[in-house]
Amino acid sequence: MQPQDVAQRHTPTPTAADGSVVDVEQAEAALVEHYPRLVRLGYLVLPPAMGRSRRVLTAHALVQRALPRGRTSASVIPSQSTGRDGDPGYAFVRLRVVRTALEAGLPLRRRAWPKRSQLPPLLPQVWGLRLFPRSGGADELALDQRLATLSGPARAAYVLRGLEKLPDADVRRVLTAAKVTDPDAALAEANGVPAQHALLDSPEFDPCSLQARPTDLMRRRQHTKAAIAAAAAIAVCGALVALPGGGWGPDGAAAPEYAQNPAAEAALDPGRLARVAPTAWKSSARTDFSVWPARGALAKDTALLRRALAVWARPGASVRVSATPGTQTGGPAGPPQLLYAGEVDNAHVVILYDGLRIARYAEPKDGTEGAALDLARVDGAAGPEASALVLGRADGNVRYLTAPWVTKAAERDLRKPSGGAMDLDLTDGVTAPLASPVQQPDACTSWNVLQLTDASGTHLSTDLGELVPAHLTTGRPGATKSAGAETLATWAPFACSLAAQRAGGVRSVNAWAYADQALPEKAGTADWVCTRAETWRGEGTAVLAQFHTPGGRYGAVAAKATDVAACGPRDPHVLAGVLWKSEAGSWYLLAAGSEDTASIRTSGGVTASAQGRVLAARAERGAQATLSGTLGDGSRVAALR
Questions:
Q1: Which of 34, 149, 301, 600 is close enough to 615 for a disulfide, judged by CB 3.0 to 4.6 Å?
Q2: In whole angstroms, what is the distance from residue 407 CA to residue 300 CA?
């Protein structure tokens, strides 16, 4: 490496006591003549934390940038004799190297531009190689480690003493000119390192006699590939930006196009939408959304369908987008299936299906401002789970689009099993509006559900604030059945607990009456019910063990858990306990397990045991106890918590 003429903005320096002046030629001559010593000086003063390779390049960069722009005052050394062989040009360049080397070790500050010396050097650079001085002996290594413990000013003081042979008075003046705030403290700190000045001339600290090694080849290859890929992406994006516009018409609230390729364009072509024949479901073995016909008065409105497809692929900033947990929000991979396009209340609504998701696009009748896109995951839906979709909500009511095999729709209150059902008109599969439980006030006085009838019987579904209503079932895990009129009594006290599952991506909720228990003091018989909410994504399953006393309006949650196997087909067992207060004011710990529970034991605040599936023991108010149970085969069952 050779020094280069690199101009730098001149920072004024104090006038020397002897009034000497240094011009560019004089400084350059000193720099060229003493270049190896100046680079060694910069290398030693730079912070070792930089690493040997970066210190080498930075030391060369600092020296090469040390030239003044023109004539300038000499350094603050009182006499020229302190320069290299009495050369004021050398004294000036040396001061610039020390000052910038100290600046390079300063930490970066917020709200302040970094100094040039604090940044990696632009020049010199060596691509693909790491350069560092030759290794010295144990003494050199020990000295380097000791110097690393010093502050920058103390390290500079030590080097000026040992390498430049300056007396302490001149070292103090050089540090002061280099803007060191406390030169005396720097000299005192440097006294803590033994004076091994001869070692400073060793090859260990010579940045001009270097070894070369390759950089990390694997990482370099990865970075090269990433750079090529980034350059290709920029080129493609630039070409796409330059393409002229076109298509089938206005995109409404969709964002600007960002790509044009055959697959993406096919997915946005209204003419390629899949449409199923109205009678296809009658001969198909499938009972899912894939056999739903296209319905609605606007099913042939190409402009509306185009806007719905475009917004699904590229929702603009003004579009309100929602998706159930675990649902991907990207556009369809190919032309989706049209299920519905028509007017619902005061909006135009389009329902699409891509085999995994339902997409609902809605826009006001008088424009596209305020358009909305809702997405829901429905993979694996069949039968009752694929029997209804939410078309719209307004004024606390909800409308559904039902499957073509649904013959009758009705509304009923899950809280009132004996209240009967109120028939709902069906028009081309669209129900009349019914009250939505998710839009009612916080006081849960009723819970209206949708009752659908088809060839297999009646099924209940509830609106939980999503596109697909949750299917309600009852029975032991692994042998559940759709909740019907005959099982409403099981659900009635626990209907309001469904509010906890709103907007959770719930696929179905099962209620299992796993035990009943005679209460102490002849207070009647209590029911134990476990409700389990399954999700479309698999995770996020919510389990509640609930306790209902005779005459109580609502069940009480005794225990709850998320993502557990209990109360499900993989582990059809459950054990839970609750503190109960009798009318006489006595407190009891009550516990119950599923039918195959052989014994229950409690420890901690309440110590008791019982054979069989129920336990009742005296307790204090607020007592904390740990429950455990044993099944008939001897295996253990833990309490739900």
A1: 600
A2: 26
Q: Is 629 helix (H, G, I), strand (E, B) or coil?
A: strand
Contact by Cβ (8 Å): 389, 358: yes
CA distance 275 to 294: 6
Predicted confidence (pLDDT) at residue 135 exceeds the cutoff of 80: no
Cβ-proximal residues to 494 (8 Å cutoff; 6+ apart), any chain: 511, 529, 531, 546, 548, 554, 555
Residues 559-570, buried b or exposed e (16+ Cβ, 10 A)? bbbeebebbbee
Structure tokens at 136: 């010295």
Residue 229 CA to residue 236 CA, distance in Å, equals 10
How many angstroms separate the Cα of 266 from the Cα of each of 292, 339, 356, 377? Answer: 22, 18, 18, 22
Write phi, then psi, for 19 (nearest 5 degrees): 70, 15
Statement: residue 300 has pLDDT above 50: yes
Phi-psi region of 100 (alpha: psi -120 to 50; beta: other; left: phi over 0): alpha
Asked if 437 and 405 touch (Cβ cutoff 8 Å), the reply is no
- Tokens, residue 65: 């940038």
Q: What pLDDT score was predicted for residue 258? A: 52
Q: What is the pTM of this model?
A: 0.61
232 exposure class (CB count in 10 Å sphere: 0-12, 13-18, 19+): exposed
Q: For 55, which DSSP code?
A: H
Cis status, amide bond into 293, omega within 30 of 0: no
Go through the chain and tell me how many residues it has: 641
The torsion angles phi and psi of 325, rounded to 5 degrees, stand at: -55, 135
Interaxial angle between packed helices 152-162 and 35-45, expressed in degrees from 0 to 180 and rounded to the nearest 10: 150
Structure tokens given for 494:
């626990």
- How confident is the model over 233-246, as pLDDT tens digits? 666 555 545 544 44
639's tokens = 């309490």
At residue 425's C-alpha, the angle toward residues 423 and 427, to 5°, is: 155
Question: Residue 157: what residue type?
Answer: A
CA distance 529 to 550: 14
For 254, the token pair is 């969709």
Give the strand order in the sheet containing 372-377: 320-323, 372-377, 357-364, 347-353, 337-344
Percent of the chain with pLDDT over 90: 55
Work out the pLDDT band at 29, boundaries 50, 70, 90: confident
How buried is residue 353: exposed, middle or buried, by Cβ count under 10 Å (0-12/13-18/19+)?
buried
pLDDT tens for each residue of 404-413: 999 999 999 9
Q: Cα separations (Å) of 146 from 48, 77, 104, 472?
A: 11, 29, 19, 74
Q: Rounded mean pLDDT of 446-468?
A: 94
